[in-house]
From TrEMBL:
Residues 94-402 form the RecF/RecN/SMC N-terminal domain. It holds the Pfam family SMC_N. This is RecF/RecN/SMC N-terminal domain-containing protein. InterPro entries: P-loop_NTPase, RecF/RecN/SMC_N, Smc1_ABC. Its main location: nucleus. The keyword Iron does not apply.
Length: 418
């Protein structure tokens, strides 16, 4: 009995020992596997650490480059502001100089007209005017009115040419010889010197009146003086008309610039928002960037307007390098921004979705639905169901073979909204 018990105990211990050995073998195998896995993870960790270090170095380099670019941008901005201030000062100085030139031109025309009157009077009264060049016979007694009118109705934008041609007509090729005057009289252009000459002329005229007058010449003088007065009156009116036309032209030019700037300010202010609404999505919640810039800030309507559009998650590129769909979205953003300035009651779009994928078609459709109202309707021509299925009503065109003509079908979609 005792022997049997001992035998059972020994067998039990042997089985237990074998179980422990098997378990140890399994644990040893697991330890080897875990050790290999741990080595792989350590290698992966080292590689990841190297990549992390390289990325951090790259970030530091980019931060340094960004700081340098920001400093350069600030310097460029300051220089640009200085150039704008200088250009503004130069523009104001130019405007003042042009106004002064216009005033001087008017004075020159008036003095030239007075001098021409003196020439005609000398010819009529046969006064021997000392001349270095020319002859009083070149001074016309008739046709002066047409000449003055023609010179004062030239293009108001060509003031310099008008002044030069007016001098040529009123000089008549004459050059007065002032050598008979005393040197101090030649240099003295004061009002007192002019008054002294007027007194001398008045005395000479009194002496002439005491002489036997030529009545025929006096009658002719009265007639010519009457014509001269009428001509000078018309010339003065022509100068006023010319000045009025020039002022009206400047007013129209100023109004044109104001209206252009008003429209450009509105459109450039809202085009970025419109472009963002057309391009934003889950992947790019902020959308793209779009803006306008003028090539000529002084007279913007004489230069071009540059349109820049950068789709979301893409670097800046010229408009010509955008894809067909990207160009279409940019063009629609510009079109909607222009329309927002002075909106019309309806808007017609003819297959604008031809180059767009379904995602962009859905964005365009959502934008159109958000902008449509009772006072602003969209008429959209499309062959894509993803666009026209979002309309309020459909109009279909088909060919009726029986009558060899086109017919239309209409379907109200609002009845299916629920």
């Amino acid at each position: 009995m005792l022997t049997q018990h001992s035998s059972c105990r020994v067998k039990f211990e042997e089985d237990s020992l074998q179980t422990i050995r098997d378990r140890l073998q399994t644990l040893a195998t697991n330890v080897d596997e875990y050790t290999a896995t741990l080595d792989k993870l350590a290698d992966t960790k080292k590689a990841a650490q190297r990549e992390l270090d390289e990325a951090q170095d790259g970030i530091k380099a980019l931060q340094t480059e960004l700081e340098g670019l920001q400093e350069e941008l600030e310097e460029k901005t300051a220089a640009l502001d200085e150039v704008k201030r200088t250009a503004s000062k130069a523009s104001k100085a130019l405007d003042k100089a042009l106004k002064d030139i216009a005033i001087k031109n008017d004075e020159i025309e008036k003095l030239a007209s007075e001098r021409a009157g003196i020439y005609r009077k000398c010819r009529l009264e046969e006064i021997d005017l000392p001349l270095e060049d020319g002859n009083l016979d070149n001074v016309p007694m008739e046709g002066v009115r047409d000449e003055v009118y023609r010179e004062n109705h030239m293009d108001v934008d060509d003031d310099e040419n008008v002044t030069q041609k007016a001098k040529q007509v009123q000089d008549y090729g004459l050059q007065v010889d002032f050598s008979l005057l005393e040197p101090d009289e030649q240099e003295d252009g004061s009002a007192d010197a002019g008054a002294e000459f007027d007194n001398s002329i008045a005395k000479l005229n009194a002496d002439i009146e005491r002489m036997a007058p030529n009545m025929k010449a006096m009658d002719r003088l009265d007639e010519v003086q009457s014509k001269l007065a009428a001509t000078e009156k018309e010339a003065e009116q022509a100068r006023k008309d010319s000045k009025k036309a020039r002022d009206e032209f400047n007013d129209v030019k100023r109004l044109r610039c104001e209206m252009f700037n008003q429209a450009f300010t509105h459109i450039s202010g809202c085009i970025d928002k419109v472009y963002k609404d057309l391009t934003k999505g889950k992947a790019a919640p902020m959308g793209g960037v779009a803006y306008l810039s003028l090539e000529d800030n002084e007279e913007p309507y004489n230069g071009g307007i540059k349109y820049h559009a950068m789709p979301p998650m893409k670097r800046f590129r010229d408009m010509e390098q955008l894809s067909g769909g990207e160009k279409t979205v940019a063009a629609l953003a510009l079109l909607f921004a222009i329309h927002s300035y002075q909106p019309s009651p309806f808007f017609v779009l003819d297959e604008v979705d031809a180059a767009l994928d379904n995602t962009n078609v859905a964005k365009i459709a959502n934008y159109i639905r958000s902008q449509a109202s009772d006072v602003f309707q969209f008429i959209v021509i499309s062959l894509k169901g993803s666009l026209y299925e979002r309309g309020n009503s459909l109009v279909g065109i088909y060919r009726d073979q029986d009558v060899n003509s086109s017919r239309t079908l209409t379907l109200e979609l609002t009845q299916y909204d629920n």
